[in-house]
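Hi R.,

Here's the chain you asked about this morning:
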Amino acid sequence: MADDGQELQLSALRERTRAAGATDEEVADSVFLFGLSTAATVSETSGRGVGMSAIRSFVSQHGGQARIAFTGEAFGGRRPFELIVELRGHAALSGAGAAG
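And here is the predicted structure, written out as tokens:
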């Protein structure tokens, strides 16, 4: 997984989820909702709101968890993050992630 350099678009997620009073962590968790996307256009590989939902579902089915961890402060409606994937009986995997 590689960060596309756009960071997590908290302002766009707040708008799409109507979560004006939610914490950054609560808003970040919404990236795992099926069908939610901040992409302006849909392509063959992005913008359909399926990827992060599929990751969490797969990891959960195998006894693990997937979550967003912030790696810096918010700036301009965006915040740097990484996707943390923890699998039961395995070392935690951490990598910069992108939502969209």
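One quick note: DSSP finds three helices and five strands in the chain.

Cheers,
M.
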